[in-house]
């Protein structure tokens, strides 16, 4: 859903990665391998959970599956980064 944008001039939604479908389904999903995405930026783990909770959405099964196993990656993220990015 991050790649979904609204063009107010044309009054249309631009969606190149099926993010609008995820929004309608109230589902959070990665468009690429979730394990790789979480390893690249462990803050994504927190964002997925926070957004799912805040927006009353579900985390798609393949996106949710590695969260528990990869949670220890957050130990290496400086606290100030968590506060700024989460």
Describe the structure.
A hairpin with a 4-residue loop joins β1 (5-7) and β2. The radius of gyration is 14 Å and the shape is elongated. With 86 residues, the chain is α+β, with helices and mostly antiparallel strands. It starts with a strand and ends with a helix. It has a two-stranded antiparallel ribbon. It has a two-stranded parallel sheet with strand order 3-4. The model has no long low-confidence stretch (mean pLDDT 88). It contains 6 helices and 4 strands.
Query: Helix- and strand-based class?
Result: alpha+beta
Q: What share of the residues lie within helices?
A: 40-55%
Record the strand order, biggest sheet.
1-2
Work out the radius of gyration.
Answer: 14 Å
Largest sheet: 2 strands, antiparallel
Q: How would you spell out the order of helices and strands?
A: EEHEHHEHHH
Give start-end ranges of low-pLDDT stretches.
Answer: none
**Helix count, per DSSP?**
6
The overall pLDDT average reads: 88
- The span between the termini is 17 Å
How would the global form be characterised? elongated
Summarize the entry for a quick read:
With 86 residues, the chain is α+β, with helices and mostly antiparallel strands. Helix content is 47%, strand content 12%.
């Amino acid at each position: 859903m991050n790649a979904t944008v609204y063009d107010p001039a044309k009054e249309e939604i631009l969606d190149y990665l099926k993010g609008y479908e995820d929004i309608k389904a109230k589902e959070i999903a990665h468009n690429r391998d979730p394990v790789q995405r979480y390893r690249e930026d462990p803050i994504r783990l927190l964002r997925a959970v926070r957004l799912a909770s805040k927006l009353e959405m579900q985390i798609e099964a393949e996106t949710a599956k590695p969260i528990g196993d990869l949670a220890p990656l957050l130990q290496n993220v400086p606290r100030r980064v968590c506060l700024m990015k989460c």
